[in-house]
Amino acid sequence: MNSFTELHRTYRQLRLIAGCTLIVAPLLILAVAYSLDPTIKPTLSHYYFFEQEPGLVRTLFTGFLISVGGILIAYRGFDIVDNWIHNAAGVFAVCVAFFPKSCDSPVELYCVPGLLSKLHMPSAVLVFLFAASAVVYCGGPRFKRRLNDKEERTRRGARTASLITMIAGVGLYVARPLSTRIQDFKVTILIVELLGFFGFAVHWLVMTSVIDKANLRIIKEREFLRSPADAHEASLDSGARQPQQPSVTGAAAKDLSLIP
User: Fold this and answer.
1) Where are the extended beta strands (E) located within 4-63?
2) Could you tell me if 155 and 147 are in contact, meaning their C-beta atoms sit under 8 angstroms apart?
3) CB atoms < 10 A from the CB of 239, how many?
4) Which of 23, 78, 202, 208 could form a disulfide bond with 15, CB atoms 3.0-4.6 angstroms apart?
5) Exposure of 172 by Cβ count < 10 A (0-12 exposed, 13-18 middle, 19+ buried)?
């Protein structure tokens, strides 16, 4: 196994872990907290102060944000823009965990003032802005050039699905001040957050699938480029006339390295 194979596996695992964590971790936080107290808090940030003594729920909440933030910081994009977008999202995710929300709600029985709590909301907003930017940029032009038409259609479809999910959450948030029904629905912000995380998860999981399929195609094309001499010898031995195969030349031949 060569070093590039290990590199590819590392990036693949980072994408899969990020995508799965963005779905499983928020649901796990809600499930564990509900098992301890059958109520649902208005936002995920409220679960930081869920217990009188810091315990499992706070650990899950901070662990979720720090682990995802660490992955986004460690991840290297397909170009410098892609890299900085993911790194910024990761930094602000860690900030959300380090700077808990301020105590401004009567439902927060166990809330105590935390470190630089005023930074919590801006950090949370910036996480979602940079996550949405990562979905829109979607690897950038360098990554797009490595895909064939079918793979590119899948990439665009996943980007659209992710953005629709995220925009649905933003639309719900924007409509909240305009509708008393939405205001009475106490978990509106929680749903907005979940839609944002789930939309970002779709981006990671489908990108992993697209890259896997693209690399499988690239491997087959590389094998074909190595095979003409063998195929010619086989045709001489068998005496059979072999149909001429299309060749991979020019720009396509230069892009036959696997996508990390």
Assistant:
1) none
2) yes
3) 6
4) 208
5) middle
Tell me how far CA of residue 67 lies from CA of 28, 59, 92, 193, 205, in angstroms. Answer: 15, 11, 12, 17, 17
Helices (H) and strands (E) in the chain, counts: 10, 0
Token representation of residue 127: 């996480």
> What are the start-end ranges of the H helices in 116-187?
120-137, 140-144, 149-175, 180-184
Please tell me whether residue 239 adopts helix, strand or coil conformation.
coil
What is the C-alpha radius of gyration for the chain, rounded to an integer number of angstroms?
Answer: 24
Q: Which of 26, 31, 25, 72 is nearest to 203 (CA)?
A: 72
Listed residue (210, 164, 239, 181) closest to 12, CA to CA = 210
Question: What confidence score (pLDDT) does residue 253 get?
Answer: 43
Distances 160 to 125, 137, 148, 199, 241 between C-alpha atoms, Å: 21, 12, 18, 10, 47
| Confidence at 207, pLDDT banded by 50, 70, 90 | very high
Query: What's the longest Cα–Cα distance across the chain?
Result: 87
* Residue among 31, 61, 40 at smallest CA distance from 187: 40
Give the span between the Cα atoms of 134 and 206, in whole angstroms. Answer: 13
What's the pLDDT tens digit per position in 161-203?
A: 999 999 887 777 666 665 666 555 577 788 889 999 999 999 9
pTM of the model: 0.83
| Amino acid symbol at 123 | S
